Amino acid sequence: MKKEVISKCPVCGHDLAITRLNCHNCEIEISGNFYLHKFHALTREQMEFVLTFLKNQGSIKAIEKEMNISYPTVKKMLNEVLLALGLDVEEDRGSQQRNEILEKLARKEISFEEANALLKALK
To answer: What pTM was estimated for this model as a whole?
Structure first.
């Protein structure tokens, strides 16, 4: 049975280092300090999002449909993945506010008219 590699210490939360590699075929063992790739820092949910993103070649419409989530949610998840990978996310406050308004509209917390007025006020 294959076990998933964990990247964070379950006790203190710091990064784990791999110290041994084994070949099941020739039984060679290599010792040292080996570190996991940045993608191991992603949560299971984030990794599933990345796979969906790649499968749909970055098409936000296709991701929305497949994952049954709104455009702002896709953008939010993408930004979370970028941050987890240590990549800069340049998003101005207005863009963030637009996403919040669109999220509220998607959840039917506000009407189309209210959302439209709020979006116009941001300009």
So the answer is: 0.60
